[in-house]
Design a protein that fits this description.
With about 260 residues, this protein is α/β, with parallel strands linked by helices. It contains 12 helices and 6 strands. The strands form 2 sheets. It has a 4-stranded mixed β-sheet with strand order 3-2-1-4, with helices on both faces. Strands 5-6 form a two-stranded parallel ribbon. It catalyses: a 4-O-methyl-thymidine in DNA + L-cysteinyl-[protein] = a thymidine in DNA + S-methyl-L-cysteinyl-[protein]; a 6-O-methyl-2'-deoxyguanosine in DNA + L-cysteinyl-[protein] = S-methyl-L-cysteinyl-[protein] + a 2'-deoxyguanosine in DNA.
Length: about 260
C-alpha cells in the first residue's frame, strides 16, 4: 500500500520482460496503461471503503494513498466529489430534477452543476424518486426552475428521437473502465446494436466481457448512454436496468425511426 505506484521497470522485471514490451503487452491485454490501471484500481478501492462506512482517513490508507494531500489531489477524478461527500451519499451536492412523460414511459432527468447526472426510466413516479434517492441518498434534491425545465424538455424530445449527440453537458461518474465503456456506447448509432464482445474489443479489452456488462448495468443515463443497444453475441436481448420489455420497445422504435 503506497501512494507511489509500482514502476514500469518493477512490473516489467517481475514479468521477465523489457519495460517497452511489458507496456505494449499490458495495454493490448487490458486496453489501459499500467499507470491508468493502477489509478483505476485505487479509485475502486477508495469508493468501496467509503461506501462501506470507513472514515476518510482509514479509506485513504485502505486504497493505497500515502497522505491526505494525495487523496484530495485525485479525489475529483476518482469520486466526482469530495471524499466526505461521497461517503455521505453525495451530501451537500445539489441536484435539480424533474419527472416528465416520454415514449419510453416516465423519465426522471437530474442534473448537478456539472451537467446531467441521471436519466432514469420507469412506469411510475414513485419508482423514479426511489431510484434517484438510492443513487444520491443524501444529496440536496431541488425542484426544477425555468432554465432546468427547458433542459428537461430538450432531453425528453431527444429521448423520443435520439439523433446525434445530446447538446448538453454530462456529469458521468464512474471508474476509468466504466467511462471507456460508456464513451464507446455513445458511438453506437440509433437503429444499431452491438454485442458485449464487440464492445469489449472497442474498449481495447476483448477479454473483459463481464466487466463490460457490469459497466452497462451501472449506467445512470438511459438512452443518452445507450446501453439498451447492447445484445448477446447471437443477437438475443439481454438484461436491462430499466426492464427487458422496455429495452425491446426502445430497439423496435429506433429501427422503425431509421427506416
Amino acid at each position: 500500500q503506497s501512494d507511489a505506484p509500482l514502476t514500469l521497470a518493477t512490473l516489467a522485471e517481475s514479468a521477465a520482460m523489457s519495460p517497452y514490451h511489458f507496456h505494449r503487452e499490458f495495454k493490448a491485454l487490458t486496453g489501459m496503461t499500467p499507470k491508468a490501471w493502477q489509478n483505476a484500481l485505487r479509485a475502486q478501492k477508495l469508493q468501496a471503503a467509503l461506501r462501506g462506512g470507513m472514515t476518510v482517513t482509514d479509506s485513504l490508507w485502505e486504497a493505497g494513498f500515502s497522505s491526505a494531500s494525495a487523496l484530495y489531489r485525485d479525489a475529483d477524478r476518482a469520486l466526482g466529489m469530495r471524499p466526505r461527500q461521497y461517503r455521505r451519499g453525495g451530501e451537500k451536492i445539489a441536484i435539480r430534477y424533474a419527472i416528465a412523460p416520454c415514449e419510453a414511459g416516465l423519465c426522471l432527468v437530474a442534473a448537478s452543476d456539472r451537467g446531467l447526472c441521471a436519466v432514469l426510466l420507469a412506469d411510475d413516479a414513485a419508482a423514479l424518486e426511489a431510484e434517484l434517492a438510492t443513487i444520491f441518498p443524501h444529496a440536496e434534491r431541488l425542484a426544477p426552475d425555468a432554465a432546468f425545465s427547458a433542459q428537461v424538455a430538450q432531453v425528453t424530445a431527444w429521448l423520443d428521437a435520439p439523433q446525434g449527440e445530446l447538446a448538453l453537458p454530462l456529469d458521468l461518474r464512474g471508474t476509468a473502465f466504466q467511462l471507456r465503456v460508456w464513451q464507446a456506447l455513445q458511438a453506437v448509432p440509433p437503429g444499431s446494436t452491438i454485442s458485449y464482445q464487440t464492445l469489449a474489443e472497442r474498449t481495447g479489452n476483448p477479454q473483459a466481457v463481464r466487466a463490460v456488462a457490469s459497466a452497462c448495468a451501472a449506467n445512470k443515463l438511459a438512452i443518452v448512454v445507450p446501453c439498451h443497444r447492447v445484445v448477446r453475441r447471437d443477437g438475443a436481448l439481454s438484461g436491462y436496468r430499466w426492464g427487458a420489455d422496455r429495452k425491446a420497445r426502445l430497439l423496435a422504435r429506433e429501427r422503425e425511426q431509421e427506416k
